[in-house]
Amino acid sequence: MPHRNHHVAMAFGLCLVLACRSREPDGVALVGATLIDGTGGPPLVESAIVVRRGHIESVGSRGDFQLPERTTEVDLTGRWIMPGLVDGHVHLVDPQAGVARWSLPRYLAWGVTTVRDMHGPLRSALALRRELARGWRPGPRVYSAGAMIDGVAPTYPDAITAGTAKDARRGVDRLVNAGADLIKVYTHVDKTLLAALLDEARPFNLRVAGHLGLTDAVTAARLGLGSLEHLSGIPEAASADPSALYAAHQRSFFAGWTAFEQAWAGLDSASLARVAGVLAARTVIVVPTLVLHETFSRLDDPAVLGDPMLKAIPQEEQRRWNVPDMIARAGWTTGDFAAFRRSRAAQDRFLRIFHAKGGRIAVGTDAANQMLIPGYGVHREMELLVAAGLTPGEAISAATRNGALLLRVDSLGLIAPGKVADLVVLGRDPLADIRNTLSIERVMTRGRMLSPDSIRARW
């Protein structure tokens, strides 16, 4: 039998080990950077941010900062810090190609730490969300709509089809039982179906997002729509006679999209202001995806197909995009692309009016659809929002704080005590030039600091 002193020595040794471990650093202090916290307020020069156990512990000024115990200091003098970016409209699962696993590290490399996945086969979409939440693969935090709800003759076969109000309610219940974070409705959902599913979703506190076609934006807002995707339903609400638009949506997705895009050029400012006022008053969040409108309006431009940023996309994926085939299926002509470009000014005008009325804009990209680059697209969207009339600070808030509000998640979108430690370290000032959001030196996700190069090494 071991001597009693042996047990005492072992216990003493264990205490020493535990004591040493308790003194080991378990936090990091990011000191000296200019902080853009996501609120839209003035930046904090020479900031000090303490991160511990995946969350922001404290935020303050370097001048009166004292390094806490068990904290490693990282000097970021001459850098800028902003919250991790949120892409409010992505597609992570393709019905034919499956999960776009190639896209996941690309979001992180470009500072996108959270995404809102807007449609995919129900089981696959929610399974991917679980994988990422459990840390089984590197990628952004995912909030998922699962499968969208569409009307009869759905555009995508993996959508939940609703032909009646009862079907719409059952579709909501199916998504609730599957654990979806939100509900998305698509172009063939009319106002009767929309009213039923909004009523069914309300007790579950699930936000409903709309890519509208057969319902105009004002009607949808008055029924209780939470977010408006792609600026859809606005021409239908602003037009004196939207019957031709509804007929086009009935014919096919591409016919409806073409008519919708072209209709913008004929809308006057007074009509746009009327619609913007209703959406702002009803607190509908607009996810305009300007990068989608801009990119699709220029698919006949060789510079788009030759964009050097496409080098980040696997060749196999670029072949799957098959842009010429999509153009052929849509029936788009040189005249259509010119019409789409003419409409862009009206889309920007609407956003200026909506923003001036207090409306909330959130960044979304529609990646990884054709020519829409995961992660990088968020930076292009912010650039387009600034071109439309927002300040760089407002564009950053649209990609951070407003993204969190879109998701109804109060732990994201800001750099403040208690928030999740998702942030981006930049080498240049994004408030001086919004394109400087691309000067990414480090990305922190869930409190873990990564370099873009280390993420790209996994591509």
Features:
single chain, 459 residues, alpha/beta, Urease, subunit C, domain 1, TIM Barrel, 2 domains, 5-stranded mixed sheet, 4-stranded mixed sheet, 20 strands, 17% strand, globular
Describe the structure.
With 459 residues, the chain is α/β, with parallel strands linked by helices. The chain folds into 2 domains: 117 residues, Urease, subunit C, domain 1; 323 residues, TIM Barrel (Alpha-Beta Barrel), CATH 3.20.20.140. It contains 19 helices and 20 strands. The strands form 6 sheets. Strands 2-6-18-19-20 form a 5-stranded mixed beta sheet. Strands 4-3-1-5 form a 4-stranded mixed beta sheet, with no helix packed on it. It has a 4-stranded parallel beta sheet with strand order 14-15-16-17, covered by helices on one side. Helix 8 runs antiparallel to helix 9, helix 9 packs across helix 15 and helix 11 runs antiparallel to helix 15. The longest helix is centred in the last third of the chain and has 23 residues. The chain starts with a helix and ends with a helix.
Q: Tell me the overall shape.
A: globular
Low-confidence stretches: 7-12, 14-20
User: Given the helix and strand composition, which structural class is it?
Assistant: alpha/beta
| CATH topology-level name of the largest domain | TIM Barrel
Identify the strand order in the major beta sheet: 2-6-18-19-20
Helix content: 40-55%
Topology:
Blueprint: H1 4-23, E1 27-31, E2 34-35, E3 47-52, E4 55-61, E5 71-75, E6 80-83, E7 85-90, E8 93-94, E9 98-99, H2 103-109, E10 112-117, H3 122-133, E11 141-144, E12 149-150, E13 160-161, H4 165-178, E14 183-185, H5 191-201, E15 208-210, H6 217-223, E16 227-229, H7 234-238, H8 243-251, H9 253-263, H10 269-281, E17 285-287, H11 290-297, H12 302-305, H13 315-321, H14 323-330, H15 334-356, H16 376-388, H17 392-398, H18 401-407, E18 423-426, E19 440-445, E20 448-450, H19 452-456
Parallel strand pairs: 1-5, 2-6, 7-10, 10-11, 12-13, 14-15, 15-16, 16-17
Antiparallel strand pairs: 1-3, 3-4, 6-18, 8-9, 18-19, 19-20
